[in-house]
Design brief:
Layout lengths: L6 H23 L7 H27 L2 H26 L10 H18 L6
Helix pairs in contact: 1-2, 2-3, 2-4, 3-4
């Protein structure tokens, strides 16, 4: 049985997934030969985490319940922006200090997974 989601949540999922595909394609096609191997690897890592956490966001919206479910959605969204966004920026030549942001995105991802797990508990737990 499909859970109905709000228009805002559906839009968030769509933007997260579509932007992951667009940025992945952009990296493969437009940035080929532009980025050195190190920066290409940063881009690939950003896309990889972006895609997986767009899917995690979908799970959180569809399966997450209560406050923990809402925390998971928020954490995954912030994680995509902070973690993947900072890696995209670094790959494109942002100052090295931009890397300070990346771990905050990682913490958001971890928090999102914990919150999602907590939201899936049964009443008997």
């Amino acid at each position: 049985m499909r859970q109905p989601v709000s228009t805002r949540a559906g839009l968030l999922i769509g933007v997260a997934g579509a932007s992951a595909v667009l940025l992945g394609a952009f990296g493969v096609h437009a940035l080929r030969g532009v980025l050195d191997e190190h920066h290409s690897e940063l881009w690939r890592t950003a896309v990889n985490y972006h895609v997986w956490h767009a899917l995690a966001l979908t799970l959180a919206v569809g399966l997450g319940r209560g406050r923990s479910g809402r925390v998971a959605v928020t954490a995954f969204a912030f994680g995509i922006v902070l973690f993947s966004g900072s890696l995209y920026a670094l790959a494109l030549g942002a100052p090295r200090w931009t890397g300070i942001i990346t771990p905050f995105g990682g913490v958001a991802f971890i928090s999102g997974w914990i919150a999602l797990g907590l939201s899936l508990r049964t009443r008997e737990d």
